[in-house]
Sequence to fold (299 residues):
Amino acid sequence: MLERLEQKALEQLARNQDKTTRVGIGLIHEAMLHTICEWLAERGLDGFLDLVVYTTPSSSEMIEHASFDKDSVEFVQSSRPAETCIRDYKEGRLQMLIRGQLPSSEFLFALRSNLHVDDFHRLALLSTNSGKDFFLAPVGIDEARDLPSRKQLVLRAAHMLDLQGIKPRICILSGGRLGDMKRDPVVERSISESISLVNELEGLLPGIQVYHGEILIESAIKENANVIIAPDGISGNLIYRTLIHLGNGASHGAIYMHESLPRPLLDTSRVGPCEEYAGAILLGASLMNGFDNTAEGSK
Fold:
């Protein structure tokens, strides 16, 4: 799936070759910026993308001692870089924005206050240590708290994969096996809600496989599910952290999903490796042209 995503990204960028794509990214450390610039040059993407780095005034040393061509990067220093980059994204100065190393709480506050977006979801692209790629959601601890929000999340995820030309195979997880229904009221409710969600989605997503995977996430991977929906945001976040920080897996960024977002908006870990930032760039680029045509904010 990663190879397909990179191919799609290159196709999208080539369509826009008459204009350079401005990619905003929040960065604090020069080492990460240097590595990203090297990666772009190795892939031949530096001619398609202009990086706009949002950072703090205290990061002047990063700019002064940068070991790459400073003409290839625009620096925006601000005492409130999250606010500044979200405003530039909103006003159309960027074709794509990646949170990068900016604090999540400040970024989310700026997103909600400037774009008036609350009920967004994030769809993370992950790989297991054996190289199996899949999308996971929800990954934010406060996302998809109830059944209607989980349904909206799945519909948005299916749409995102459709934009990339990938047919979704969606596994809905729950808090137990079917045989666990009578063990505990919380477990029973989780299983019942997931079954109900699958039944509803089958009517809303004709031709797309949606199934209840119980609590068996390992089976979902073996059965090549490419979208895995956790029971809630807390369990999704724990799956993400266990895979990435304990299981030698990899993250390739996460796309923010909401109908009012006019252009790709992506999330990364503040301490993530370059591969995660590179994946976010590719993920955003692969969605770029279709994203504009479907977002209410672009109308």
